[in-house]
Amino acid sequence: MNQARGNSSWYGKDPASRHYKLKGVAVAASAGLAAAALAAVPASATIGPAGVAAGHNITVFHNIDFVAASGFAVGDQMTVTVERNGVLIGTATGAAADPEATGAGGLEVNHGPEAAALPGDCWEGNTPDIRPGDLVTATGPTGTDQVIVDNIAFTGDPQLQGNGNITVPFVARRANGNAIPAAFIDSGEFRAAANNSVRFEGVPVVRRGAPGQYNLVYRAPYRPTRNDDQAPFNQTQLRRALLGDGHAVGFGHVDPVPLEAMLQDGLGDTPGPAPGCNAPSAQWGVTTTFPGNVNASNLARGLTVRGLATGATAVNVQLRDGTAPVVSKLATGTNNWSVSFTRAQLRSLNGNVRVVGRYDVTGGTITGRTSSFLKDTARPNAPRASLRQGTYQRPRRTALLSAAGNTVRYTVGAGRQARPTANRGAVYQRRIRLAAPRQVIKAVAIDRAGNVSPVKRLVYRIR
Questions:
Q1: Which of 293, 425, 307, 409 is nearest to 356 (CA)?
Q2: Would you state the pLDDT for residue 44?
Q3: Which of 40, 263, 391, 397 maximizes the CB count within 10 A of its CB?
Q4: Given 3-state DSSP classes, what are the helix, strand and coil percentages for the chain, each rounded to the nearest 5?
Q5: CA-based max dimension of the chain
């Protein structure tokens, strides 16, 4: 038996950031424990149609295409599959192992075996790019377990706040889009470097915006919950570490282990085969849209979309803004595909537009990674000044104001200076001091789509 299977320390593809520790899953010792496990899953949980048996567990790290399924007898022949839109996109079959002697056998697929991979250690054929909404099934001689992958993902880098706290933004939503309650997210933590010597476990979760948007919060002064080296980092070293990678978040990394666990390990979203696994990554998704946003100045060029697909016979690309009829077009190419939309095809769309690929593969049609762009061809209003232009007896300061989300660029001179544009001129950040006898400000507002306002010309005289 490959002793690497079920290895409790997950280092993954990058030892500096893939650090997660899986807890062993023991068979439920009593009906009471089974009931507790069931009760831990809220009504909105995405247990699959077949359910998950008491004492069993399916754990998914979708960002690294890692699935662990356990609760079967050691030696049972198990199969783990991933389906999207009813189409099989990943499979692994092997004998259930129990290297940690938990009493429950299972498979850890794409965990990263340290020795030669055994059947079930790696995905067969291709490594599926597991996405929220995919159906994960674990089958053995005694039954079938199923979960639907939830959307748990870091959405930005760690940020140092003014009070010394460090926050890491993430989203936690069910596959159907409903927010996962903050109280249900029990597995926020950090492990420093590859040796996991300094750990923060049970990191508080705080809602930061719309439902399902949260922050992990590391409160200053930083106090690790574990320090295996018995040589604590000082506060500066801890702050530097926490501003890097090593974070993990999700639910189900607790005892007793619930029926399902959904987590993200590391800030990066780097799917594909783990070290020791050779099945190449299967990719379906939009990679680029050009231009990035569509505005009045570039609408005539149209839009070009590029992407990747594995084993597709055709790619249909759809543009959706939620109100106008869907605009669709067949792409040219399959593995590396591209498609161009004309100005006329973009005419009916407005606002935030999703770019969705639909891939014809063996077994049916699947979706993949989407993208989006903003289409807005309306010019914003010119910025306005907080200080009325005119003549003043002493130096003054003025602010340049525009609608939320707009950027203001400006130039200052005697009146002959160049006009600001979307890419020229200083970006307004703080009040402008007015001290010269004659001072002319030229300013424009640029909205999120890149539309530029008319130039606002402001003339000030200081006596």
A1: 307
A2: 36
A3: 263
A4: 5, 40, 55
A5: 92
What digits encode the pLDDT tens for the residues 364-413? 999 999 999 999 999 999 999 999 999 999 999 999 999 999 999 999 99
Identity of the residue numbered 125: G
Indicate the helix (H) or strand (E) that contains 37: helix 31-39
CB contact at 8 A, 131 and 119: no
Structure tokens at 137: 């099934």
Any alpha helices (H) in 290-384, and if so which ranges?
343-346
Alpha-carbon dihedral of residues 231, 237, 239, 244, nearest 10 degrees? -100
Report, in angstroms and rounded to the nearest whole number, the Rg of the chain calculated over CA atoms: 27
Q: Which of 59, 60, 11 is CA-nearest to residue 246?
A: 11
CB contact at 8 A, 11 and 61: no
The rounded distance, in Å, linking the Cα atoms of 106 and 145 is 12
Q: Which among 365, 317, 375 has a CA at the least distance from the CA of 343?
A: 375
Please provide residue 9's backbone torsions phi and psi, each rounded to the nearest 5 degrees. -105, 120
Q: What is the pLDDT of residues 268-284, one digit of tens each?
A: 767 899 999 999 999 99
User: What's the CA dihedral at 418, 423, 426, 430 to 10 degrees?
Assistant: 130
* In a shared domain, residues 209 and 289: no
Query: 375, 409, 427 — which closes off a domain?
Result: 375
CB 154 within 8 A of CB 170: yes
In this structure, the answer to whether residues 27 and 58 fall within a common structural domain is yes
Burial class (CB in 10 A: 0-12, 13-18, 19+), 81: buried
Residues pairing with 401 in the sheet = 384
Cα–chain center distance at 230: 34
Mark which of 265, 280, 295 sits at the end of a domain.
Answer: 280
DSSP annotation string for 207-270: E-SSTTEEEEEEPSSP--SEETTS----HHHHHHHHTSS-EEEEE--SSS--SEEEEEESSS--
